[in-house]
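task queued by scheduler; priority normal; single chain, no ligands, no partner chains; default sampling; output format set to structure tokens
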Amino acid sequence: MVLPTKSTIIFTVFFFVLTIACNPGKKNMPLVSVDVKTIPNIHSEDIVSLISDSGVLRSRFQAKIWDMYSNEGDPYWHFPEGIFVEQYDSLLQVNAHIVADTAYYYEKKELWKAVGNVVGENMEGRIFETSELFWDLSVPSNSLNVFYTDQPVKITEPDGSVSFGRNGFRADLRLNTIRLFSMQGEFNIDETAGSSQQDVINADSLQLQ
């Protein structure tokens, strides 16, 4: 299948208008303006794609729809019907995976933006849920600015402990180190080998390891 270019779209619209103008029976037909900026350069469906850096596989994503826009020098991708993303370490093991209702990827910034029902999980079983998430591929993997959001976030630990960041969180690539802001949570604390209790914590910020 040959995908339409902007030149093809513009010519098609011009030909359509010219045909109307030359047809006496269609004089009252309304003209429809088309903004080519709203039309993707490339449209793909049911795709699976790999992203690598210097020959090293960094992530894999799959989506029902993938639209690419040039956007006058600031190109971006749009996934209007959801996305599933896996990220890998140097041994090609899955560090974490993320699903979202809608997503964008800004090529020049190397920045993902996921919105809607965003759910992620790392390989240790830590789960986070939020309505908006940014994933910055341009920063070091151990930086706490790889994943971030200013929206409320819920963190569920493998042992069932739950914490909330009312003003968002920051995390490293593996989601192993997380800093929650305006944090509240309930944690299971082991006192002896055979018993445990639950403790409630409130703090302006708290770093989870």
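post-processing summary
- The chain has one helix and 14 strands.
- The two ends are 49 Å apart (CA to CA).
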